[in-house]
Design goal:
single chain; 296 residues; alpha/beta; Rossmann fold; N-(1-d-carboxylethyl)-l-norvaline Dehydrogenase, domain 2; 2 domains; six-stranded parallel β-sheet; three-stranded mixed β-sheet; 53% helix; globular
């Protein structure tokens, strides 16, 4: 299958690697020439714009960092909407329900179907092909896309309306963000009380406190002091803001999630938005006067 792919950064690059390994033909575009060079060396075609990708591929995926980037790629003057071949646009980012609904409506006017397809699992999941993929959109279009998605991870089909998968992804991401912050506070508390962080994680991961941070982020990226999970704080903050906006629009009180956002804002204020999300643990340690030690 020939697939267009726009945005080959921390998530897009490993997904493209998986698609190539599965035998798919790729036409790729990224604003950074250096990002596409390794894919070109693996026989992916490089296009000069999103529209040029859509001139060649009927199915076009996009993995981008901001809502503005998605709007430009999908609907801009050099965007997918003007492409000659594109008939299915696959949004793989977390952009919010309303944004996807509006974008799908505008693309439909150009006879392009939108599949809402946010992903979870971070760069490690993208590289391993173990992403959790949430998809919504017309069943016939989804059926054409599904074989490619199976190369990237496990797919949950949510329903036929674009935007439904966004609601599920926002619920997932606010839980993940809450686990990240709560794990930092719990781990620092335990270490300051004299506990070994390795023993803490061993016990927690056998009990009811187990979560994505205790299973992956802390053993692989905090206890090593690498702080290199591969996801920028600004991206997580975008997702948290979107989740809280969705909750507000639906009339759902979310005081715990509001508190998580406040902590993340403090971390961004002192360390910047480009820092890795696992740096949250480091900052909580600094504020408590006790760092989680390097054990790996």
């Amino acid at each position: 299958m020939k697939i267009g792919f726009i945005g080959v950064g921390n998530m897009g690059r490993p997904m493209c690697d998986r698609l190539l390994a599965a035998g798919h033909q790729l036409v790729v575009h990224d604003a950074r020439e250096a990002a596409v060079r390794p894919l070109a060396e693996r026989q992916a075609r490089v296009a000069g714009s999103a529209r040029a990708v859509a001139d060649e591929a009927e199915l076009v995926c996009a993995s981008l960092p901001t809502l503005a980037a998605y709007r430009e790629v999908a609907l801009g003057a050099a965007g997918v909407r003007g492409g000659k071949e594109a008939r299915i646009f696959v949004n793989m980012g977390t952009v919010g329900t309303r944004f996807v609904e509006d974008m799908a409506g505008e693309l439909a006017a150009a006879s392009i179907v939108t599949i809402d397809c946010p992903i979870s699992g971070g760069p490690p999941g993208a590289a391993a092909g173990t992403l959790s993929i949430m998809a919504s959109g017309p069943k016939d279009a989804f059926a054409r896309l599904e074989p490619a998605l199976n190369a990237l991870g496990k797919v949950t089909y949510v329903g036929e309306k674009p935007g439904m998968a966004q609601s599920l992804k926002l619920a997932n991401n606010i839980l993940s963000a809450t686990a990240l912050v709560a794990t930092a506070e719990a781990m620092v508390m335990g270490v300051k009380a004299g506990l070994d962080p390795e023993i803490m994680l061993q016990a927690i991961n056998l009990g009811s406190g187990r979560n994505s941070s205790t299973l992956q982020k802390y053993p692989g990226h905090v206890l090593t002091h690498g702080y290199d999970f591969g996801a920028a704080l600004d991206i997580l903050m975008k997702d948290v803001d979107l989740a809280l906006s969705e909750g507000e629009a639906l009339g759902v009180p979310m005081p715990v999630c509001q508190s998580v956002r406040q902590t993340l804002r403090l971390v961004r204020a002192v360390g910047g938005g480009e820092q890795d999300i696992t740096r949250v643990a480091e900052w909580v340690g600094k504020w408590a006067g006790k760092q989680i030690p390097k054990t790996r």
